[in-house]
Amino acid sequence: MENKLKICLVGSSGGHLAHLYMLKKYWQDKDRFWVTFDKEDARSLLEGEKVYPAYYPSNRSIKALIINSFRAIKIISKERPTLIITSGAAPAIPFFWIGKLFGAKTIYIEVFDRIDAPTISGRLCYPVTDRFFVEWEEMKRVYPKAINLGSIF
Fold first, then answer.
1. Which long-range contacts (CB under 8 A, 24 or more apart) does 17-24 make?
2. pLDDT mean values, one per 10 residues, the chain (153 residues)
3. How far apart are CA 4 and CA 105, in angstroms?
4. I need a labelling partner for 101 at 20 to 30 A (CA). Which of 63, 68, 73, 81 fits?
5. pTM of this prediction?
6. What are phi and psi of 32, to 5 degrees?
């Protein structure tokens, strides 16, 4: 049986989504789907893409974490991604942890504006991330197993 790559790109709308979209050269010819907030910027940027809405507002919200955890179970069990990629924020956490339970590989890209301090989602996803990328060498002190990708801008 062929192990075909299927990518789940998950993240908040705004800068996190723009960050993932900059990887288009990598994902454009792959089987993929997106999980992000149902907001105007996401609808515009991802027109024509398969998109599942994440619950928001989600930052530092237990209610949103619970709702997005149930959404993650439903979406991941339906789509069966082999790889989950994110640059944060909050919706990434349940998708990474639940994705690991379903056997998906994970890639986390810490956002560019973090030079020497971790994000909350980065800290919470780090333990289950197969590849953790940073864009500044200083961040390797924060995340010792990280790989310095350099800027993706």
1. 17/41, 17/42, 17/45, 17/46, 18/45, 19/87, 19/109, 19/111, 19/112, 19/152, 20/85, 20/86, 20/87, 20/109, 21/45, 22/152, 22/153, 23/85, 23/152
2. 84 92 95 97 97 88 94 98 94 96 96 77 94 91 90 67
3. 13
4. 63
5. 0.91
6. -150, 165
